[in-house]
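User: Show me a protein chain along with its predicted structure.
Assistant: Here is one chain, sequence first, then C-alpha cells.
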Amino acid sequence: MEHRALGRQGLTVSVQGLGCMGMSVFYGATDETESLATIDRALELGITLLDTAESYGPFANEQLLGQALAGRRDAAVLATKTGVEITDDGRLLDLNGRPEYVRRALERSLRHLGTDHVDLYYLHRIDPKVPIEETIGALAELVAEGKVRHIGVCEASAHTIRRAHAVHPLTAVQTEYSLFERDIENNGVLDTLRELQIGLVAYSPLGRGFLSGAITSPDDFAEDDWRRTDPRFQSENFDRNLDVVREVRRIASAKDVTPSQLALAWVQHQGAVAIPGTKRRRYLEENIAATEVTLSAEDLAAIEAVAPHGVVTGDRYAPEFMGTLNG
C-alpha cells in the first residue's frame, strides 16, 4: 500500500483510507460482525486511515471503531469530527463550534473510541455563529495538550481555510470530491490546499456508490437508505447521471478494471487521499485494488471527455442534509 503525506505537519497515511459511516447509519441495514471483519481486513491490507464522526449514529460508529481497535490502537490513524452539537443521550441539535463544546465533544469521543488521543480531529461543519478563529484556537489547545495530534476542517470555503490555517496549521481538509463532484477545482479550494500544502481527503469518491456501476435504479435502495432523498438519484437526474456512469464503465472495461477502481484511481491521481465507505469486505478489496491502477494521459483525456466538471445533474444534497458552508 502506497502512503502519502497529509499536509506538512508530519502525518502520513495510506493513499486510500476507509470511510466507516455506513457501518452504523444512513446506508440501510448494518451488520456489526461484517463491519468489524471489514475493518480487520482493511488493516491487514495496509489501510491505516479510518474515518468516523461523533454524529454517525450518533456515537455508534465511534464505539464500533473503539471495539475494532481495542488492543491495537497504534495500527490505525484515527480521524473523527465534531461541530454538530449532540446531547449525551444522542439528540442532534445544531451546529456548534464554540470552544467549550469542542472540548467536551472531544472528551466524549475519546471515551467512545477507547483512546487517549485522536490522530486527526476535524471540524465537521462550520458554525456561522462562531468565528472560525475561536474554534480553531480550541482545537490548537487540544493539540498542545496531546489529546489531538492534527487538525482539519470539512466542507469549508477557500477563505475560511485560509483563516483557519493562520491560527493553527491545518493538516487536512475533507470535502466531497469525485468524477461527479468537482466544484473544488473551480471555487478556489483545491488551489488553496495546494498553495498552503494542506492535504485533501476526498469523501464520497464514488459519488455515494453511483460510480460503482452497481446502481441501476432508485429502487435498488433500502427504505432507510438516505440516498432515496438525494437529488442526484431522483427521476430525470438519475437517468442522466446513469448515462455518465455507462461511459465510465466503458473506459474501465477497456482497462480491465471496474468502474469503482477507475473512479478511485482518478481521485488518487489528483493527489487526494480517498476514503470510500463500505461495510463489506468484498467491496473493500475491490476498492483497494484501485491503488494499483495507473492512468495514462490517454486515460485521463478519455475520462475528462465523459466526466468533465459539471457533468452531474442534481444538487449534492437535499437542503436538510447539507448543513452550512461558510463563505
